C-alpha cells in the first residue's frame, strides 16, 4: 500500500504548492518508505503527492503520481486491483503500450477511457485514490467499496486538501485543525469517530463506496458509486434457495478464487493466523496445492485467557505452513501504550490496537511485506456473540409484556448494593463473582427494551458519553437510524457500515501501515460480500452455529476439533491493568491539571475512575476511550 496527499489552492505559488504537498507526503512516510513523488500545476493551484510501498512492479515504472498516456489524468493511488491482469488485454487491444506491470497504470488508463465513474464500476480491489482531470480542472477522490483503505479531506471555498491520514492534513501549511466536541462524544460512545465525521471540525472521511468530483467554487458532495443497501436488497430479492451443502460448495469456490487473486505480489507474502475460523480458512486456501505459506500468530504466554497461539500452531501444523509464534509480553504492551497516539492519527479506542501493531511489526521484521487477514467474516456471516445474545433476547424476553419486564428491571435496579452482591455471588458465571453486581444492573436496564436495543447497548462503550462530553450529543451514526430489516440482517448491516470500516479496518490499516506492511482482506472480496447477503438466516446459523457456512468450508480443510471453541478475542485485560500497572498512567492522564482540555467533565471522569480503582465497578471499557482521547489530545499539542 501507499500514502496519498495533495491540495487544490489557487493562492499558492508553484514553490509553495510543491512544498505543501511534499510536507503532506512526508507525514505519510511510514506508509510508503520506497519512494516519494509530487506533481504540481501552478497555474491551476493543484499539487498531488504520493508515498510508495512497492508491492507490484518494483521499478520506476510503478512510481507515482502517474500520468495517463494522453496526458489528461494524474493519479495518486493507494491500493491493489485484484483484477488488473484481466483488464490488461483490452487496454492493449485498444492500442495502449504499457510502461510496466503496475495496477496503477491499469487504473489510470481505465479512467482515461471510461471516466472515474466508469472505471469504478469495473475494478475490484481495495483502494483510495485522487485523480486530477487536467481538461476539466476537476479533482476526483474515491474509496473502495468496503472502506478498507482510508481517505480524509477538508474543503473551504476554493481550497481542498486530502490525505490518507489526518497527519497529512495537519502537515499542510495554513491548516488549523480544531477538535470537534461532537466527535469526542461519539468516540466516547463507540470507541471510534463514525464516518463521514472526523475528530477535527470541518474534516471528512470519504465514506466506503463513495467518490466525489470537485473544482474550485463548487459545493463538495460525495456520492455512492456502490451501495451495501443495494446489495442487501438484491440478495433478499433473489436469496440462495439451495440446500446448505450447496451454499458451502458455492462459498468455497468464491473464497478460493478471492484468496488466489490476492496472492499477487512481487514481494514476500504471508498471513495472520489466530487459529480461529476466518484466518484459518485464508491460510488453508493459501496452502492448497502443496504451497507452504508463512503464517504469523501473536502469543500471550503470561495470560492463557487471551492466548490463542497454541490453537494457531495446531492449525498451522495440520496445514503444514511455515509458522511463527510472536510472543507478546504484558510488559511489552504496557511499555508501548504511550505510543498509541503516534500510530493512530485519529483516536481509536480499540484495546486490541496495540497487540495488532506489535504483531504487524514482528511480521514486517521477519521480511514479510504483504499479509492476508481474516477480517470481515464475523460481519458478513453473523459470527459475533452479540448477534446470538440479541436474537435470544428477542425470542425469549420480548414476548413477555413490557410492563412486566419494567417491573422486573425496577426490582433488580432497586436492590441495595449489599443485597445485589449476595445475589451475584449466588449466581453462576458470568453473573457471579466480584463484577456480578455491575452485570446484573446492566442486564436489568435492558429488560424493558428489544433485542436490537440490547445489540446497540453491547456496542456502546460509555452509556454516559454525552454527559462525559459536556453535553455534546455526538455525530450522526448508522446505529441511530431506523431500520426495517429483520434483526439479524439489521445487525450485520450496521456492523458492516460502521464498526467494520471505522474500527476493525481502521485498526488494521494504521497498525500495519505504521511499519510499512500491507494487509489484505480476501473475505471482503466483492463476490463474497454479495453472496453472503444472499444467504438466509437459517443457513447462516444452521445447526445453531454462528457463521455456519464458513465453519463448513473450513471443516473440509481442518478437523473441527482444531477450531470449534469459544471465541477468545484479541483484547488485553484492561480492568486489571487499570487497577495495576496502568493505574498511575490513568490517574495522570485523567486527573492531571490539564485533563479534559475543555472537552470532558472532569468531575464525572474522576468519579468514574475512582469507582473502578477501588473495585466497586468495572468501568474499564468506558475508561479506555477517555484515556485514548486524552493521550491523543496531549500528543497533538506536544
From TrEMBL:
The active site is at residue 2. The record marks 375 as: Important for beta-aspartyl-AMP intermediate formation. It holds the Pfam family Asn_synthase. GO terms for molecular function: asparagine synthase (glutamine-hydrolyzing) activity; ATP binding. InterPro entries: Asn_synth_AEB (IPR006426), Asn_synthase (IPR001962), ASN_synthetase/amidase (IPR051786), AsnB_N (IPR033738), GATase_2_dom (IPR017932), Ntn_hydrolases_N (IPR029055), Rossmann-like_a/b/a_fold (IPR014729). Pathway: Amino-acid biosynthesis; L-asparagine biosynthesis; L-asparagine from L-aspartate (L-Gln route): step 1/1. Residues 2-217 form the Glutamine amidotransferase type-2 domain. L-glutamine binds at residue 103. It comes from the Bacteria. Keywords: Amino-acid biosynthesis, Asparagine biosynthesis, ATP-binding, Glutamine amidotransferase, Ligase, Nucleotide-binding. GO terms for biological process: asparagine biosynthetic process. Its EC number is 6.3.5.4. Belongs to the asparagine synthetase family. This is asparagine synthase (glutamine-hydrolyzing). It comes from Methylobacterium planeticum. The gene is asnB.
Amino acid at each position: 500500500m501507499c500514502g496519498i496527499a495533495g491540495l487544490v489552492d489557487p493562492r499558492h505559488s508553484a514553490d509553495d504548492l510543491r512544498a505543501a504537498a511534499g510536507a503532506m507526503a512526508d507525514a505519510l512516510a511510514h506508509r510508503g518508505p520506497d519512494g516519494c513523488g509530487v506533481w504540481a500545476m501552478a497555474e491551476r493551484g493543484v499539487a498531488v503527492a504520493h508515498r510508495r510501498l512497492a508491492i507490484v512492479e518494483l521499478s520506476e515504472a510503478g512510481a507515482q503520481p502517474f500520468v495517463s498516456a494522453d496526458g489528461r489524468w494524474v493519479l495518486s493511488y493507494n491500493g491493489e486491483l485484484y483484477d488488473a491482469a484481466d483488464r490488461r488485454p483490452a487496454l492493449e487491444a485498444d492500442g495502449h503500450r504499457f510502461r510496466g506491470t503496475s495496477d496503477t497504470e491499469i487504473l489510470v488508463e481505465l479512467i482515461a477511457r471510461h471516466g472515474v465513474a466508469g472505471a469504478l464500476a469495473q475494478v475490484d480491489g481495495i483502494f483510495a485514490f485522487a485523480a486530477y482531470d487536467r481538461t476539466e480542472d476537476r479533482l476526483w477522490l474515491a474509496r473502495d467499496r468496503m472502506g478498507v483503505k482510508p481517505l480524509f479531506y477538508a474543503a473551504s471555498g476554493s481550497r481542498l486538501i486530502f490525505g490518507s491520514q489526518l497527519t497529512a492534513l495537519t502537515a499542510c501549511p495554513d491548516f488549523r485543525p480544531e477538535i470537534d466536541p461532537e466527535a469526542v462524544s461519539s468516540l466516547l460512545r463507540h470507541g471510534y469517530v463514525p464516518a463521514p465525521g472526523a475528530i477535527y471540525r470541518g474534516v471528512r472521511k470519504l465514506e466506503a463506496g463513495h467518490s466525489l468530483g470537485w473544482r474550485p467554487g463548487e459545493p463538495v458532495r460525495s456520492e455512492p458509486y456502490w451501495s451495501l443497501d443495494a446489495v442487501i436488497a438484491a440478495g433478499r430479492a433473489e436469496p440462495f434457495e439451495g440446500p446448505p451443502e450447496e451454499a458451502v460448495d458455492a462459498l468455497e469456490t468464491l473464497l478460493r478464487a478471492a484468496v488466489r487473486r490476492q496472492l499477487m505480489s512481487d514481494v514476500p507474502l504471508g498471513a495472520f493466523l489466530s487459529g480461529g475460523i476466518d484466518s484459518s480458512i485464508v491460510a488453508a486456501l493459501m496452502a492448497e496445492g502443496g504451497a507452504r505459506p508463512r503464517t504469523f500468530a501473536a502469543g500471550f504466554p503470561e495470560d492463557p485467557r487471551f492466548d490463542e497461539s497454541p490453537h494457531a500452531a495446531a492449525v498451522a501444523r495440520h496445514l503444514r505452513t511455515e509458522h511463527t509464534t510472536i510472543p507478546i509480553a504484558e510488559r511489552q504492551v504496557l511499555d508501548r501504550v504511550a505510543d498509541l497516539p503516534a500510530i493512530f492519527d485519529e483516536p481509536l479506542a480499540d484495546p486490541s490496537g496495540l497487540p495488532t501493531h506489535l504483531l504487524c511489526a514482528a511480521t514486517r521484521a521477519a521480511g514479510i511485506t504483504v499479509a492476508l487477514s481474516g477480517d470481515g467474516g464475523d460481519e458478513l456471516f453473523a459470527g459475533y456473540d452479540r448477534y446470538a445474545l440479541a436474537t435470544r433476547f428477542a425470542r425469549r424476553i420480548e414476548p413477555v409484556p413490557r410492563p412486566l419486564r419494567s417491573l422486573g428491571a425496577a426490582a433488580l435496579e432497586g436492590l441495595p448494593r449489599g443485597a445485589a452482591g449476595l445475589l451475584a455471588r449466588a449466581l453462576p458465571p458470568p453473573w457471579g463473582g466480584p463484577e456480578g453486581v455491575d452485570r446484573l444492573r446492566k442486564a436489568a436496564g435492558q429488560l424493558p427494551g428489544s433485542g436490537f436495543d440490547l445489540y446497540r447497548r453491547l456496542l456502546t462503550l460509555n452509556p454516559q458519553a454525552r454527559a462525559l462530553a459536556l453535553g455534546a450529543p455526538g455525530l450522526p451514526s448508522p446505529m441511530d437510524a431506523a431500520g426495517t430489516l429483520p434483526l439479524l440482517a439489521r445487525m450485520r448491516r450496521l456492523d458492516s457500515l460502521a464498526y467494520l470500516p471505522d474500527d476493525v479496518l481502521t485498526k488494521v490499516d494504521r497498525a500495519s501501515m505504521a511499519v510499512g506492511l500491507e494487509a489484505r482482506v480476501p473475505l471482503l472480496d466483492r463476490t463474497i460480500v454479495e453472496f453472503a447477503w444472499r444467504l438466509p438466516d437459517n443457513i447462516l446459523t444452521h445447526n445453531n452455529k454462528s457463521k455456519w457456512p464458513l465453519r463448513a468450508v473450513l471443516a473440509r480443510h481442518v478437523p473441527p476439533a482444531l477450531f470449534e471453541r469459544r471465541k477468545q478475542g484479541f483484547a488485553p485485560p484492561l480492568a486489571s491493568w487499570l487497577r495495576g500497572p496502568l493505574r498511575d498512567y490513568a490517574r495522570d492522564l485523567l486527573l492531571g491539571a490539564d485533563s479534559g482540555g475543555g472537552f470532558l467533565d472532569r468531575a464525572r471522569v474522576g468519579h468514574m475512575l475512582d469507582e473502578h480503582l477501588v473495585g466497586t465497578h468495572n468501568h474499564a471499557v468506558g475508561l479506555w476511550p477517555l484515556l485514548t482521547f486524552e493521550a491523543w489530545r496531549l500528543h497533538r499539542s506536544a
